[in-house]
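Chain A, query sequence.
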Amino acid sequence: AAASLAVSLKARRLVFFTDVEGLLDAQGNLVERIGPAQARELLQSDVVKGGMRPKLNACLAALEGGVHEIVIAGPKRHESVLANGLGGTILVAA
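Chain A, predicted structure.
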């Protein structure tokens, strides 16, 4: 719903505040910045699990709909995202 709303409002940025710090790679490290192609590759693997799968799919839908940047941020990064737009995982249009 958030992705659809962001597309409808022609938002430049969408932020997902969640209970995890962001998207993690196969080694469990935070992916700080990623593009759509890399995100699709991760979704095709077994790296992305649980609730991150629908979040990442929503991010891709938002990017395809014209949102330029999406941030996925966990509790430790909420303040940083609100203050300066940084923290967690940032997905950017290619």
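The longest strand covers residues 13-17. The mean pLDDT is 91.
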